[in-house]
Amino acid sequence: MNNDIVSLYNNYNENQLSDFFDRLIEFINKYERIFSRFVFEDTLQAVKKLDSSDFYLGTSKDNTEGLVRGYAKEMVKATKKEICYDAVHLIWDIAAFTTQETCPSCQDDELKIASSTDQMKIYKVCDNCLITQLDGEFVDRPQEMIPATKKQVHILIG
Ligand SMILES: [Zn+2]
Fold first, then answer.
1. Which of 81, 70, 64, 63 is nearest to 21 (CA)?
2. How many C-beta atoms lie closer than 10 Å to residue 69's C-beta?
3. Distance, CA 126 to ligand 1 centroid (Å)?
4. 104 alpha carbon to ligand 1 midpoint, in Å?
5. How many angstroms is it from 7 CA to the middle of ligand 1?
6. What's the whole-number average pLDDT of the chain?
7. How far apart are CA 42 and CA 67, in angstroms?
């Protein structure tokens, strides 16, 4: 598992983000039984079916390439739990759509668009201070969220 993820991360290419994303999803499917020990069941079931073509990839201003390079080194000796957490975090980082809207709470990050695992609810969330909005109201941050699809992004912001 460690070797697989290290080689995947070492082959990260910012210009082929959709390939990288789909390989990451394949990795999760390959090790689904291990992921199921550390990732919420509904999240895992939703994430394992994600397809790069349904998402706006790479909209985050975070330095994803730096993040992946860092992970590649750490993953050599990482525990299974760390591998699973980082992979799911990376899915979020690559596929969660980042809006132009500054967080109304911390004013320190742009809001992202997220979905409930059943894709029935669409949220605006801040990764920095963790506020969550649903239909314009502040709500408790759900335990489980997945990136919003292109379709969901358009429903929310036109
Ligand atoms: Zn915030």
1. 64
2. 14
3. 5
4. 7
5. 34
6. 96
7. 26
Contact 121, 145 (CB under 8 A): no
Do residues 43 and 84 make contact, with C-beta atoms less than 8 angstroms apart? no
Q: What are the tens digits of pLDDT across the range 78-110?
A: 999 999 999 999 999 999 999 999 999 999 999
Single-letter code of the amino acid located at 19 = D
3-state secondary structure (DSSP) of residue 44: helix
Q: State in Å: Cα 36 to ligand 1 middle.
A: 30
Question: How does DSSP assign 98-146, residue by residue?
Answer: EEEEEPTTTSSSEEEEEE-TTS--EEEE-TTT--EEETTEEEPPPS--E
Q: What are the C-alpha distances in Å from 45 to residues 51, 108, 132?
A: 13, 32, 23
Whether 150 contacts 95, CB under 8 Å: no
Residue 125 has pLDDT above 90, yes or no: yes
The type of residue at 133 is: Q
User: 19-32: per-residue pLDDT in tens?
Assistant: 999 999 999 999 99
How many CA atoms does the CB half-sphere of 46 hold within 13 Å? 21
